[in-house]
Design brief:
This is DUF317 domain-containing protein. The protein has helices at residues 22-32, 75-78, 82-94, 117-122, 124-128, 149-152, 154-164, 212-228, and strands at 2-11, 47-53, 58-72, 97-108, 136-143, 174-175, 200-207, 235-241. The chain has 242 residues and is an alpha+beta fold. The chain is globular.
Length: 242
């Protein structure tokens, strides 16, 4: 499982120079929150460390500020820990500077993920309590790379997402001809989906809130929809504010 965060990252002027980087700070925060144990093998942990890059400081609009790769440890039982992963990544970059995220790009192993329905339902009260003004329309692109899975199952995935809308305070997914805004550079794992022309579909979705947890929540629903319709390929998910 991997995530790249795109936008602007302005360095904190009062931070002392140190040898810390995105990997070390993400590792420390993951340990603090109980997502990662020293060995990365504990049954109660959410993920084991793989790699990370950044921080990359920029004042431009859609640059890659940092990226993170982990190995989920219990996804067969409880699904992928997408919200906590997203929030930990964003909080890590926020330790280095002021972060203004314009987009997220994920790599998700749908073929090995277990059902996340209980995890999604248990978090419902958190999002139902969000102020209505925080709702944000975004464009979501699914990319199955060389495989045609997302194109073949587009309508099925959309139907699954539509079923989730009543409990999602109006997720309101729609097929769209819009194209997700291009980011300044590709995430380093894009080639994992293959080297041929990508197979992509695009949805318009209303998020409960434009926060790491809000985005992670919606991407969990998308991952769950892909799993529920029988997709067995890894999928890239791009979420961009428009």
């Amino acid at each position: 499982m991997a995530l790249g965060l795109f936008g602007r990252l302005s360095r904190h002027a009062d931070r002392p120079q140190a040898d810390e980087d995105a990997y070390s700070v993400f590792h420390a925060l993951s340990s603090l929150l109980g997502h990662l144990t020293p060995t990365g093998l504990d049954a109660g942990a959410a993920w084991g460390m793989n790699d990370a890059g950044g921080p990359s400081f920029t004042e431009e609009g859609r640059d890659l500020c940092g990226w993170f790769q982990v190995s989920p440890l219990n996804e067969h039982v409880v699904g992928l820990p997408i919200p906590s992963f997203t929030d930990t990544c964003a909080t890590t970059l926020g330790r280095f500077g002021t972060l203004d995220v314009e987009g997220y790009e994920y790599y998700l192993p749908t073929s090995v993920a277990g059902p996340a329905g209980r995890q999604i339902a248990n978090a419902e009260n958190w999002f139902s309590f969000a102020p209505p003004a925080s709702r944000t329309r975004v464009v979501v692109s699914l990319d199955s790379g060389d495989a045609s899975a997302v194109v073949d199952r587009r309508d099925d995935v959309l139907e699954q997402l539509s079923r989730a809308a009543p409990t999602e305070e109006g997720l309101d997914p729609r097929a769209t001809d819009e194209t997700a805004p291009e980011f300044a550079e590709a995430v380093p794992w894009r080639w994992w989906l293959g080297h041929g022309p990508p197979h992509t579909v695009t949805f318009s979705v209303t998020l409960t809130e434009w926060t790491p947890l809000g985005v992670g929540r919606a991407v969990s629903l998308i991952s769950e929809a892909c799993r529920a319709v029988g997709m067995v390929d890894h999928v890239g998910v791009r979420v961009a504010r428009v």
